[in-house]
Amino acid sequence: MAIYLSSFSCEIREVHLSQKPLEMIKLSPKGTVPVLLLPTGRVIDESMDLMKYVLSINNPMGIMTDYTQNKDEVDRMLYIFDNKFKYHLDRYKYSSRYEKVDPLEHRQKALKILEALTVSPIFDTNKNFITNPKLIDISLLPFVRQYRIADPEWFDTEMPCTEIKNWLSDFLDSKLFNEIMIKYKRWEALSERVYFPPN
Fold first, then answer.
1. Three-state secondary structure along the chain?
2. Is residue 158 in some structural domain?
3. Which structural domain range is residue 118 located in?
4. pTM of the predicted protein model
5. What is the CA radius of gyration of the chain?
6. Measuring CA to CA, which residue among 131, 127, 125 is closest to residue 175?
7. pLDDT, mean of residues 49-78
8. 82 CB neighbour count, 10 Å cutoff
9. pLDDT digits (tens, 9 = 90+) for 75-91
10. Which of 58, 81, 125, 198 could form a disulfide with 85 if both were Cys (CB 3.0 to 4.6 A apart)?
11. How far apart are CA 12 and CA 193, in angstroms?
12. SS3 readout for 112-142
């Protein structure tokens, strides 16, 4: 989303993390995505660093406004989601991968984090994601989308946070979401170059 919104352009290489290409490991030995190689040779391999980089070049629609106005709170919430929320999300969504894990317990703990987000000063229930996306939106909504995917029926009918449901619904219905969710063939060494956003 940040790459698209900032009008940044890059070659995109779709990889399967079960078959990580050597070219990717050479750039970033930790073996996670995303990995952005800049023309200078610098490698950016953290999502937040990548978002901040491309938006520092071009920040349309005031996407970084929430960050510049309330940096400490945005950083605090980003840390919570990247660490605590993701910890519980993994154990809720992929409980079979872990020993002695109660997925409902982790669903509830993740829900508490979502409830805390709704009372944070950076969460504005009156704004519309579609017309006014902010850094906090494009950073956290993918986590919330995965939380819903774990049990869509429960999320849609029983999950109590109406503000979160509406926020995610705006995101899923947005032109932005539909234009970035493109399926690519897995990259191989002899693959033709593919660019994002598409030309």
1. CHHHHCCCCEECCECCHHHCCHHHHHHCCCCCCCCEECCCCCEECCHHHHHHHHHHHCCHHHCCHHHHHCHHHHHHHHHHHHHHHHHHHHHHHCHHHCCCCCHHHHHHHHHHHHHHHHCCCCCCCCCCCCCCCCHHHHHHHHHHHHHHHHCHHHHHHCCCCHHHHHHHHHHHHCHHHHHHCCCCCECCCCCCCCEECCC
2. yes
3. 62-178
4. 0.88
5. 18
6. 131
7. 87
8. 16
9. 999 999 999 999 999 99
10. 81
11. 8
12. HHHHHHHCCCCCCCCCCCCCCCCHHHHHHHH
Please state the φ and ψ torsions of residue 134, each to the nearest 5 degrees: -125, 170
Same domain for 25 and 77?
no
Give dist(CA 130, CA 124) in Å, integer. Answer: 13
**Rounded CA gap, 175 and 170, in Å?**
10
Give exposure, 123-134, as e/b (b: 16+ Cβ within 10 Å): bbeeeebeeebb
Query: Are 85 and 162 contained in the same domain?
Result: yes
Per-residue model confidence as pLDDT tens digits over 9-28: 999 999 998 999 999 999 99
CATH of the domain at 127: 1.20.1050
Residue 50: per-residue pLDDT: 95
Report the 10 Å Cβ neighbour count for 46: 16
Each residue's pLDDT tens digit, 132-163: 788 888 999 999 999 999 999 999 999 999 99
Q: Using the structure block, give the residue that is written with the tokens 């669903």.
A: 107
Amino acid at 140: L
Q: How far apart are the first and last CA of the chain?
A: 16
